[in-house]
Amino acid sequence: MQTAVKKVRVDCADLAIGMYVCELDRPWLQTPFMIQGFYIKDIDDIDTVRNVCDYVFVDKIVQREQLTKSLPGASSAIVLNMTVDGAAVKQSGPRLSNAADEGQQQPYRSEQGIDAFFGGKKLTQYSNSVSWRDEAANAGQAIRNLYDQIARFLDISIDGNPLEFDKIRIVVEPMVDSVIRNPDACLWATTMKPPMDDSYDSALRASVFAVVLGRRLGLPRRDLCSLAMGGLLFDIGKLRLGDDILKADRKLTEKEMELMQRHVEIGLSILKRDGLDNQDIIDFVANHHERFDGSGYPKGLAGDMIPAFGRIAGVVDCYNAITGSRKYASSRSPAEAINQLYKLKSVHFHKDLIEEFIHAIGVYPVGALVELSSGEVAIVVAQSPTRRLRPIVVVLLDADKNKCREGRYINLEKVTHQDDGRKLDIVKNLEPNAYGIDRSKIRIS
């Protein structure tokens, strides 16, 4: 039985991952799309549609579960080498399709709704109580203090001394409170902090990302503090491994990988020895490498068998690994990491959890370098809560890619056109160090 279509007009600048496009602003035969109706699966799909149309109609009724396996995304629905209005349509290049669409192992457990993740917990809907500018100073101080304390706590553990979990909770609280007030400020302070020790940087990022996702899910403050502590501690077992593994500038051998995977077991033994009895934190640490399709470790848990805080940990750890500095592979842009995570939904990660993470972090996350349709290069500094493709950016390079003397802020939610009347959009994601930009030296005022 087919469900009635409820069409809603959406400007292409406001397209989002997860939408089903059922109608265009022009006849289908005047476009390069060979199929009438497609799914927006990733950022490439958004770019493809924006190169053809000014606006589209989105079906608000059709269910995502009916789409992912049976319908194409925009990029795969397009006919190659066609032109629109006499102009060639830009192609996105090779794309990685969803593993679920290509016959890889499917999760054999049901996918619970988000509400079922947390049993009887009372969830809330947070809203920003201050602007990202007003929160910037508090967030910066919270992140600097937290980083210093991470180094102290982890060094204590390396020396064999017991961790004091009550003190760690006190240390994370200023960051948690800052994220509750406005997550963009803490995301900026975390992403733009000068790189230091890899282990400490990774712990800091994981802690903040976990809290940002937990806030999006509506978890109470107490649970956000547990997520923050889990992010700080979930890789503590790695510190017991030798530098020849941790600081290797090459891919690890199979034997070394087996040893590396033991860090989960080692970390749990340390935390339990020191008296950790918070089950949520234990679940976070124990399951951050488990995957929804059962392909993870150490137990190969699948689907709903992975505890809720473990599922959150898996998403956070994956995003952290993609965007962090790696000895044997270059880090990827935040926007590319979001795209890669989306391709893993319902395979490695719960589909709703991935979509909630994308909402929390943004399609163009804070710290992402982007190119505007004006030719200018900018960096994302804050999100729009209602128009996720139109964040607030600060311009770093002019259209000729020359450094701007003073940063110019643009709220793309409000500024939709250039001075000459042409549309102003984000048209391209850039690599983290594109055009020689050192993100750690960027300051906002």
Task: Write a short abstract of this structure.
Helix content is 38%, strand content 11%. It is built from 15 helices and eleven strands. It has a five-stranded antiparallel beta sheet with strand order 10-9-8-7-11, with helices on one face.
Note down, in words, how this protein is organized:
- With 445 residues, this protein is of the alpha+beta class.
- The chain has 3 domains: 1-80, no CATH class; 132-361, Hypothetical protein af1432 (Orthogonal Bundle), CATH 1.10.3210; 369-441, no CATH class.
- The protein is 38% helix and 11% strand.
- It has helices spanning 43-50, 74-77, 114-117, 132-158, 165-181, 183-191, 198-217, 221-233, 243-246, 254-261, 263-273, 279-286, 308-323, 334-343, 351-361; strands spanning 7-11, 20-24, 38-39, 55-59, 83-84, 87-88, 369-372, 377-382, 392-397, 403-411, 426-429.
- It has a 5-stranded antiparallel β-sheet, with helices on one face. Strands 1-4-2-3 form a 4-stranded antiparallel β-sheet, with no helix packed on it. A two-stranded antiparallel ribbon has the order 5-6.
- β7 (369-372) and β8 (377-382) form a beta hairpin.
- α12 (279-286) packs across α13 (308-323) and α13 packs across α14.
